[in-house]
Amino acid sequence: MNAFVRAQTMSYCHASVTFVCLEAELAFLFPSSPVRPHAGRIPSIVAHPGLPVLVAAWGILLAASVFQDALGLDHEARVWFLDVDVERSFYTWFSQLLLAFTGLMLVDTGVKAAGQSRVTGVEFVLLGGIFFLLSADEALSFHEAASTRLSGVRGLHFAWVMPAAIICAAGLAAAVPFLRQLGPRVRLMMLVAAGVFLFGALGVEAIGGEVLLAAGEDVLARPYRLLVNLEEGAEGLGVILFLFALTRHRTDTGMAPGITLFR
């Protein structure tokens, strides 16, 4: 029993430390100082100084993978922790955090928007849930499991792209009423962000699967490596552009830039 109690205590302490660290990171990236809703249009990059940090981290991690490909490093010489096409890499870890953080921002936006429109608030929260699922997929690779199940179906090498495209089309159609409630600039920014993300996640992914198949499943084949970097880069850029759009919406509607769910 004593060992069990000690293990439980250590588990609770670890969770508490993790929670405090998350709050500290959120406070650093998105300080909760109030903004004036009618004191002119404050650019998102100014209202939220943490955004350039995210952009810089994304650019550095992507460049590290591209640099290794430019050098033509083989399996033994390559630093796989810096490769965008590996699950256990810094870039994949960053993508998980970025998607989860965007989901958290959406939930916080929904909670704050619910005071004026409960429907709008729920829509933001549901959209946040989608980003949490995307973050989980980065870690658990649901789409790869789907491809395995659909491997017998004729079509693309990465078979999961086909049902995913149908789901995305249906989701975008269902989101039309929600998008109409947003300002024209924010709406355009979100649509561009979605286009960039889906271009990488579905379009380039589908082409990359066929190129990989033609290369005999050689993951270091130069054409495939080019597409992999383009795919992952487009996905990351799409999420960052969406974050810019979301922070612009929060600024335009007078929301405080900080996340206050934990306060």
Word description of this protein:
This protein has 263 residues and is mostly helical. It has one domain. It is 72% helix and 0% strand. It is built from ten helices and no strands. The chain has helices spanning 2-29, 44-47, 50-71, 90-113, 118-140, 142-149, 161-174, 176-180, 184-214, 222-252. Helix 4 packs parallel to helix 10. The protein is globular, with a radius of gyration of 20 Å. The two termini are 35 Å apart. Residues 1-47 have low confidence and may be disordered.
List the domain count as a whole number: 1
Count of β-strands = 0
Provide mean pLDDT, rounded. 81
Helix content: over 70%
Which regions are unreliable across 5 or more consecutive residues at pLDDT < 50?
1-47
- Global geometry: globular
Alpha-beta content class: mainly alpha
Query: What is the CA-CA span between the terminal residues?
Result: 35 Å
Per DSSP, the total helix count is 10
Rg calc: 20 Å
Biggest β-sheet: count, sense, barrel? none
Give the topology string: H per helix, E per strand: HHHHHHHHHH
β-strand amount = under 5%
